[in-house]
Amino acid sequence: MNEQTDEPVNDPSMQHVIGVGPWEGELPTDEKYDPRLLAEGDRRNVADKYRYWTMDAIIADLDERRHDFHIAIENWQHDMNIGTVVRSANAFLAKEVHIIGRRRWNRRGAMVTDRYQHVRHHATVEEFVAWAQEAGLTILGIDIFPDSVPLETYDLPKNCVLVFGQEGPGLSPEVHAAAKDTLSIEQFGSTRSINAASAAGIAMHAWVRRHVFGQKVG
Ligand SMILES: C[S@@+](CC[C@H](N)C(=O)[O-])C[C@H]1O[C@@H](n2cnc3c(N)ncnc32)[C@H](O)[C@@H]1O
């Protein structure tokens, strides 16, 4: 399969790169398996335990285990980072991904991982905030504002939504105002910031360390 499209890869030189070829031996009958993948092989960008599974079966399995954090990203311009943020949200098993602003976003970096993720769109920050409050989630901004507090020593709540800004402007004043706190990731070099996708991976992993591995902070 082509990772970008989930279509079979026709180039024979690619066949050994990732994944598995056609199923060998007696075909399994469990309906979680996709007859086409069993016949043609499975080159998708999925973990080995999901080889030959239908997309619906994979999503159903993930839905039983999703974590309690959500992530959101503002999308007022076309930010190339969003796809990579979505891919990390899939890897760290965020409950849902929220796109605030424009509905269309650049899927390139997502490597089709968005198909296994629940992605919800909010046209305005106001709509997003109302939804988060209704869902009982603490809104936490992630950015480097003068009033930001260090992520490294912050006791992240279990039920929260981590909100990331865009390359350039960063988090909007509206999200900044709505967030209970805004958290910054400590840097040591000369650059002013890291990109949103890197920041998202670090912040999600901080939640995983706290709530999956029980690591306390500070
Ligand atoms: C390139 S930054 C935006 C610029 C930033 N607001 C500034 O003052 O230069 C894009 C997004 O990446 C995230 N980000 C980048 N570096 C960060 C850091 N050190 N700590 C927390 N978030 C960061 C934030 O979500 C931010 O909105």
TrEMBL record:
Alphabetical list of InterPro entries matching this protein: Alpha/beta_knot_MTases, rRNA_Methyltransferase, SpoU_MeTrfase, tRNA_m1G_MTases_N
One Gene Ontology biological process: methylation
Residues annotated as domain tRNA/rRNA methyltransferase SpoU type: 69-205
Pfam families in the record: SpoU_methylase (PF00588)
GO molecular function terms attached to this record: methyltransferase activity
Gene3D superfamilies found in the cross-reference section: 3.40.1280.10
Major enzyme class: transferase
Keywords noted in UniProt: Methyltransferase, Transferase
UniProt entry tagged with the keyword Transferase: yes
Location of the region described as Disordered in the Swiss-Prot/TrEMBL record: 1-28
UniProt EC number: 2.1.1.-
Lineage top rank: taxon: Bacteria
Protein name: RNA methyltransferase
Organism of origin: Glutamicibacter arilaitensis (strain DSM 16368 / CIP 108037 / IAM 15318 / JCM 13566 / NCIMB 14258 / Re117)
Taxonomic lineage: Bacteria, Bacillati, Actinomycetota, Actinomycetes, Micrococcales
